[in-house]
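WARN no homologs supplied; continuing
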Amino acid sequence: MKQQATIKARKELETKMAAIFGEKIKSLSTELQRILLDDMVTAFENRLNVLNRAHPKSGNKAMR
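OK structure emitted
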């Protein structure tokens, strides 16, 4: 169940990034767009994980 929620959240983030970067990536093939969006979501999630580990709890309050 948790994995399904993670997959859904990831897909939502991909969709949002596609909307934001659509003009900049439209010259790429559909397959390359999917690859790039997947890479951007992965990089974003990894960066969040690193930052959350570096600043547990106190980092979350500072972001609000």
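The chain has a mean pLDDT of 88.
OK
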